[in-house]
Each structure stands twice: as structure tokens, then as C-alpha cells.
Amino acid sequence: MNRREVLLSGAALSLLGTRAFAQSGGEIAIGAIWPFTGASAQVGTDARHALETAVDIVNNAHDLDLPTAKNAGLAGLGNAKIKLVFADHQGDPQKARAEAERLITQEKVVAIAGAFHSSASSTASVACERYGVPYVAADSSSPSLHTRGLKFFFRPAAHDEMFTAAMFDFLDAQKKAGKKVETIGIFYEDTIFGTDSSNVQRKLAAERGYKIVADIKYKSNSPSLTAEVQQLKSANPDVLMPSSYTTDAILLVKTMDELGYKPKNILAQAAGFADKAYFDAVADKSVGLISRASFSLDMAQKRPAILKVNEMFKARAGRDLNDNTSRQLMAILVLADAIDRAKSTDGEKIRAALAATDIPGDRTIMPWKRVKFGADGQNADADPVLIQYIGGKFVTIYPTAVAVAEPLWPMNA
């Protein structure tokens, strides 16, 4: 090993922030932290398919108007290929932190993407900050994540304040159209995702003039929600707004069915209500469910790449892209684009390239105006949509500019 190699090796093991790993075989290692086992394992399985689809787009030449798609590999790094290194956080924030550190120090990744659970993204991104490695929050939506002053944190997709504002805009539109929307029930799990979501819902309900008749916090992965559902049934809000992960969402709907409670309307904060496992379990009890979303297949008529990318994903996963998988896929494309422009595997240079990102919305598969990060690492132009489960699939119902169907309101009409 010569002197230059020794110096590079020393820098790679440093905690001081700058990193310049030599990638063997022309490969650039990117860490991917998701729950591959445990209660949210299906999310991790779907995420793997989405991330691998994104890597296919980057590593091979495709006739798609998407970042890095037309070239085989990263042109800025001599056509180097992306290699994903997966890590399982099992829904545990401390495991997420430990796995992030392992990916950085042992697997020599140049960046990390993750992590579905906002609590996991919170700890993993702090570890990345300490090592000077960019972290891209693909599908974690807690509003507090981008307010911590982290330099290496980036989120291309919307956060729950943005999602919730769209939800209340929709409720305002329904009220203006003469529909009965006066009372709201807030139902949320007790981690950072549910707590932050409920805080925003409470604030906007007060500002927009909606009465909260149920405000129920429950323990995540609770064995029973009978008492909570009885409270909801008694309050009987015009709109139930749940923030739950998959197992809780399934238990909630099953318990409502057992107790004979049929909400007038459900307007969900996605998460568990967008998961395949949820619909496998309770699709028959979810007709009319409305969820906020980052993605809709309906947009394909305006963005042709959506159908082609969806077919690539479907060949792996056996199902269409959804709210979670579309965000996961785009996160890797945004990150690959930045590495390509940085022409480097150095953490600070990749961070600078991410900060300079400006991708027009029509070069994504999302309904976004563009991808451009603020000083806090948040993309403020990630426009959300609302989708409703009708006829065995989700259709876009809001905003009207992209809607393909009128909302079924109330859902149990």
C-alpha cells in the first residue's frame, strides 16, 4: 500500500466527516435501512423491490426521462454502478442507529436511504450526521425530522404537515360543496410519527373551524383496541383521521367491524393504510377509505415514465407501485443523480450536490412540481394527492386538477 492509499484509508475511518472510499469493481455502495423482519416486514419486502428497480434504472440504459436513466451507470464516475447494502432495523430506532453505523464503518457506504418508521430515520440520520454521510429520508414523514439543523439530512417527499394541509383543504372543499363535515376524530399511535401527525391535525382543525370530538392516543402494536374503538363509536365523528402502522391499522378496522362501528368517513395518514398486508387482511372493510399519498398511477397520462417504471417494479413485486414504494424508488434516483453530479464518493461533495438538486417534476414519477431542497433538507415542492379505495383500487380524488373520480362521501353512503 503506497502513502496515498494509507492516507485515504485513514480518512475513511475518521469520524471527522470527510469520506472518500475507493469502491471495488467500479461499484458505489449505498446503504438501505428498512424493516425487513417484524411487524412491518412486508414494507421492507416491497421497499427492496422498489430500491432494486431504481438501481436497474441507474445501472442500465433506459429510454426514460428520469435522472441517470439514459446512461448505463453513473457517467460522472466513469459509469460506476450502484450497489445496495441492506440493513434490517426491525422497527427499532436503536437498531436503526446501530445499523447505520455498521453500514458506514464496515460496509463503507457513501450514503444511506431509509427507513419507513420516522423514529428509525431520526436515529439513523443522526448517526449519518456524525460521520458526514448523507441520509435521504425516502418515506419517513414526521415533520420534526427536517427541523433538527442537520446538514446531511434530505427528504424529497412531503412531510405530514404538507400532507395534513392537503387533507384539510379537501375537507374545506367538501364543506363548501354542501357535505356535512363538522367534527373530527384523531386516532394516533405513540411514536414520533403518530404524535407529530396528531399535533398538526389538532392545529389545523382549530385554525379551520373543525371540532375535535375524539382525541385518542394508543400504544403502538397494542394487543387490543377495543376500549379505543368504543370511544370512537361513542363520539361518532364526521371524519376519522387515523395515523397508524400496518398491524395497528388492521387491528383497528377489524375491531371496528366487531363492535359494529362504521365510520362516516376515514381520511388516513397513509402508512399502514397504504400497505399490501393491510389490504390483504381487510380490503373488504375498506371500501371508500381515503388516504393522503405521494403517488398515483392516474398521473401516467401526464407523465409517461410512470407506466414503464410501474411495469418494471411489478415484474419484481407482483403489484403496482404505491405511496411508499414510489417514494423509495425516487429517493434512490435523487441520490444517484447527486452522486453523479458530485463526481465523487466524498460525503461532503455528495451533500453539496444534493443541496444543489433541481429536478423538474416531469422528470419524476411523482405529482411534484420539482425536487429542490431548502436549507433544512426538505423539498417544499412535493405536492401530495388524496386517493380513495374504490372498486378494488385507489383512484385520485383530489386536487381537482389531477382527480379522475368524484369522492364517495360519506364512504358508507
What do you see in this structure?
The chain is of the alpha/beta class and 413 residues long. It has two domains: 3-158 and 300-382, Response regulator (Rossmann fold, 3-Layer(aba) Sandwich); 161-293 and 386-398, 3-Layer(aba) Sandwich (Rossmann fold), CATH 3.40.50. It is 39% helix and 16% strand. It has helices at 3-12, 41-59, 93-105, 118-131, 160-176, 192-208, 226-235, 246-258, 276-282, 305-317, 323-342, 347-355; strands spanning 27-34, 81-88, 111-114, 135-137, 153-154, 183-189, 211-218, 239-243, 267-268, 290-293, 359-360, 370-371, 385-390, 393-398. The strands form four sheets. It has a five-stranded parallel beta sheet, with helices on both faces. A four-stranded mixed beta sheet has the order 9-10-13-14, covered by helices on one side.
Give structural attributes.
413 residues, alpha/beta, Rossmann fold, 2 domains, 5-stranded parallel beta sheet, globular, disordered N terminus
